[in-house]
Amino acid sequence: MKRRDQGVAMTVQEHGIAAGHVLLLRYLNRAAVLCEQGYVSGSAIDTAMRLGCGLTAGPLAMLDGIGVDRALELMAGAAVTPAPLLTAKARQGRAGRGFGPLTQPDAAEPVDPVPPSCVGIVGSGTMAAGIAQTLVVHGLRTALVARGDEQAAAARRAVSAALDRAVARGRIDAAAGAEAAGRLRVSASIDDLADCGVVIEAVVEQQDAKRAVFAALDRVCRPGAVLATTTSSLSVADCAAVTGRPADVVGMHFFNPAPVMKLVEVGHTPDTALRTVVAARALARRLGKVPVSCPDRSGFIVNYLLFPYLNDAVGMVERGQAGVAELDREMEQVHGFPIGPLALLDTIGLDVSLAILHRLHEQFGDPATRPGPLLTGLVAEGRLGRKTGAGFHLQRPSKGAGR
């Protein structure tokens, strides 16, 4: 991988102030602003962005690699107003590793929670099935509840197919795959979650739908059961508000694909009990994940930094400052991102991305999260990315085209 300072310097020398250069600096600067706000620690920011986005380094480590003084010079050339924290570090003589060390230490938990005998999941989509697969592979009895028998059966098929692929690829042996499949039960009755010590809601990212699930879980689940939402952009507190047990409600934001991605953002409200946070973190670690705790707010860490970066990329294309393929190629080949921003939007889904941007803008009022007409127009046209075969990179095949 190229050193970030070398990559930025090469871009400046060969192309002037290239769009990708500006895009990167704005992303790094926003991370510095987030660190300055004190929402979470610098190590939490870097751990979350590295594991949640598949990056080789977090944004603050990237700033250290460039050097704070050099980053300030580059920001001046790119018309990026630097975070006051960066200016302060430069004045303090911390021009090199101004943020380091940024490795997140393993937190010593105050209690050692007993693993749940059963974990419940509400939902039947990709995320619900992925979490169910992860749970059963790691030896946990799992009860998945869908909104109907057909959806429950489809979720079971999805988990079974994923386990079969894991066996075929040698990731687990056939006996382990069969045992894992045997740990999953599916149904369409929320009452089947009554014996679960942890229940993870993974339904559509709509507040009314999530609130309805939590109201039902409040009725069904035993006292002290941990009730977790996988939301990435909605309010954990709103889910808790429809229950009589806000101390038991926590966010557990898994990343897609759940069996592969290592990060779980654990979002806690002022009412979330410490035992609930500890239980959620312990479950994440049992699943081979790295939990990063953060206060409840829209976007947590990753989406708060990721979606302004993606929206910024859309704006550059919209204004004619860069082409889609050109910008993606620069972010991958010069700046070391695993996937370009427009390709990532196609993968996430343009409709999902638009909804997240609206929620972020509603909560924070940040101009960086205000969607522009290009993204809004593509969604209105039904060009939602990979799932529809049309987006920034993808085009629907013409009628009559051969398969």
UniProtKB/TrEMBL annotation:
Pathway: Lipid metabolism; butanoate metabolism. GO terms for molecular function: 3-hydroxybutyryl-CoA dehydrogenase activity; NAD+ binding. GO terms for biological process: fatty acid beta-oxidation. Coiled coil: none annotated. Keywords: Oxidoreductase. Residues 23-96, 299-392 form the 3-hydroxyacyl-CoA dehydrogenase C-terminal domain. InterPro entries: 3-OHacyl-CoA_DH_NAD-bd, 3HC_DH_C, 6-PGluconate_DH-like_C_sf, 6PGD_dom2, NAD(P)-bd_dom_sf. Residues 119-296 form the 3-hydroxyacyl-CoA dehydrogenase NAD binding domain. It holds the Pfam family 3HCDH_N. The keyword Oxidoreductase applies. PANTHER family: 3-HYDROXYACYL-COA DEHYDROGENASE FAMILY PROTEIN, 3-HYDROXYBUTYRYL-COA DEHYDROGENASE. Belongs to the 3-hydroxyacyl-CoA dehydrogenase family. This is Putative 3-hydroxybutyryl-CoA dehydrogenase. It comes from Dactylosporangium aurantiacum subsp. hamdenensis.
